[in-house]
Amino acid sequence: MSLNQSRKKVAVLISGRGSNMVSLLEAAKAEDFPAQIVCVGSNRPDAAGLQRARDAGIATFSLDHKRYGKDREAFERELHEELEAAGAELVVLAGFMRLLTPWFVNRWHNRLINIHPALLPAFPGLDTHARALEAGVKLHGATVHFVTAEMDVGPIIAQGSVAVRDDDDAQTLGARVLQVEHQIYPQALRLIASGAYKIDGMRVLASGS
Ligand code: GRF
Description:
By secondary structure, this protein is of the alpha/beta class. The chain is 35% helix and 25% strand. The site of 5-O-phosphono-beta-D-ribofuranosylamine has 15 residues, from helix 2, strand 5 and helix 7.
């Protein structure tokens, strides 16, 4: 079997600039990386990351969620079809700012991962950096986790932390967290795509290769 045939096929979903997506594309250039990015999709046709993906020679698609009104499942059924058509085996959310319904999450059970800019279970939801500062935490960071029906809850694959500085504001803190995201997301994808792990409740345990 050639290397490309044995690599897990991964779709990345974005809504914005796509810096995490770029870190995954960079990592996937390594010969021994167990995943290949087969497509990048967005719910926002104007997402800057789509052009970055195209520049890297990756197939892209966009499905404007506004076209579906309140019918989240209609949007998700089309999303699901795009992912299947691309042959995706794993779906990676990288700044994808759409809540996914249980319908979609169940279809991609244990094959759908997300990065969240906080040390879960602290600070689920939005505005994590401002909330971390307000709460006075001394350590902050990012979490890669499997997606479950409940938002920002799911077995934790990887975390990385940064020390909070006295002179931080949400922007400076967020910038350092983003650097950590770019390190841990490729590491987490490497583990999950390799298949050398098991899930034990909320724990994801590396099981050796
Ligand atoms: C990241 O901070 C990620 O944790 C959050 O959305 C942001 C996306 O940034 N879910 P980018 O589009 O990857 O640059």
